[in-house]
UniProtKB/TrEMBL annotation:
InterPro entries: Cit_transptr-like_dom (IPR004680), DASS-Related_Transporters (IPR051679), RCK_C (IPR006037), RCK_C_sf (IPR036721). Residues 220-304, 308-392 form the RCK C-terminal domain. The chain crosses the membrane at residues 6-24, 31-51, 66-85, 106-133, 153-175, 187-211, 412-443, 455-473, 493-513, 525-552, 572-598. Keywords: Membrane, Repeat, Transmembrane, Transmembrane helix, Transport. It is found in: Membrane. The keyword Lipid biosynthesis does not apply. It comes from Rhodopseudomonas julia. It is a multi-pass membrane protein. This is Di/tricarboxylate transporter. It holds the Pfam family CitMHS.
Amino acid sequence: MTFSDLQMWLTFGVIALTIVGFSLERLAVETTALASLVLLTLVFVVAPGAFDLSSPLSFEDLLQGFANPALVAVLSLIVVGQGLFQTGALDAPSRHLARNTRLPPSAVFVLLIVFAGALSAFLNNTPVVVMMIPVLMSLAREQRISPAKLLMAMNFATIIGGSTTLIGSSTNLLVAQVAHHEAGINLRLFDLAAPGLAIAAVAVPYILFVIPRLFGKRPQEAVKFASGKQFITEIVLPEGHPLVGMRSVAGLFPGLRDITVRLVRRGGTIHLPPFEDIELQPGDLAVFSGIREDLARHGIIKPARGERSTETAGGGTHSVGEAIVAPGGRIIGRSPAETGIEQTSGISVVAVERRGRMSRQAFSDVRLEEGDVLLLSGTDAAFDRLRGSRDLLLLEKSFAPLPARRDTLRSILIFTGLIVLAATGLVPIAIAALGAALLMLAFGCLNIRQARRAFDSRIFMLIGASIALATALERTGGAQFLAEHLVAVTEHGGPRLLLSALFALIAILTNVLSNNATAVLFTPIAVSAAAAIGAPPLPFIMAVIFAANASFATPIGYQTNLLVMGPGNYRFVDFLLAGGPLTIISWLVFSLFAPWYYGI
């Protein structure tokens, strides 16, 4: 055995250990990825240097994955998505959909997921996933369900949809180019439609009705979806407020199913529930009660009046936080407006929580008592000024950023520009995403701290390490070794067995390597294998396309898997449990359909 052969087998061992490490999760994902890089460095850099041997990989080659355009694109798209989330850009459309459709929520989710899959047949599925993540996240909050039930299903639907046309995925186009060069075959736009729709016919029901049942609430969502404190607040509805024009039905406001409307004052008339055919109008004073997340989402919690101008001048990010009225505090017995908090610190008292004893009265008429919890709104600088107060005890862990709705139009325009550039191919998606992330920061849709929090170290290390593993497998001839032995083992079993085995091998490798690298590597091998047994090359080329797109079983299989990993709070093993069966479904359907359809 030569030293190069030993390096190939050691690469197989590192890949196996890495996959086991990711699956068991005894160590952090970042630690496992770093360990794989260290092992590859020992195999390809340290050992050859110690014994004065040649190596197919340098240390710089192993680190190239951390400067890969795919990594830049994924991290930039995450920042763009965070900008959309911070500005609440897609909350209003999703609430409109949930409020005005006559379909049940489950049907709305099904339609959105099917729509995402259909759209991916004609657009790159990465911007489709970026567009759908905030929509589904918002609807999940609206319906009080875990985003984990929706995001993976939507992501897999886009991958399935992207494999039904030639332009649905960059993988399809790469295979078409190599197939034209190797076999003179010219694939047309809808040549993939028949096998793609056959796979979709079985895969889509699994995606829609089985995958959501595999996920309950993630541990990180326990606080997010808890009922929380019920605050009472009031707002005078201005022109253009999203609640203006909302009409009561059967005594309630159906668009505010998660918030209680306690009182509406119009002029000198006070309306109490149940509300009889009332439409909210500008100038109405409305009193609401609900948890802080819902009050913020509906635009009821607003920045302090004294801080709005400084915000536009760079005065800081608006946050909401809670504070307890201290025993013996000077503000006891006063109304929120009489406390002087807004005048002295720039903090606005936007809501009050008093367990079990809040009567039907206007927020401005509430007299504060010892132990009341106040919901406060203001900039970080304003909260710093309040921290020395003896009248309030700030609950530091309760602070959260308030959506900057003034930047909603900006974030939507930036996002639309990204989608147009990515869909038309005017510039590479990595450049478009990087530019969009820069514009989100430059125009104040989110700040550096929020962008830094959106940066996911798991994704950074996963992509960098997986590209290093893929490079090692290619340079050592490991992938070529596996493919050639597969052909040798199955060529006497006829074209059907070879076709099925080829699909299975590629489907396994595409979840370890990048799908584009796997597709390019195996297309000439598939053409040669077909020629060796006298079979037509087209079905084998199709096997490469659909197997390379079957990247469901690991988060590193495809970049959109990584995009939903953070928002859905998924673990590595979640992709294996939900995506593994989907990979098997794709393999079985293709193995049965393709020989019949192509007549082999």
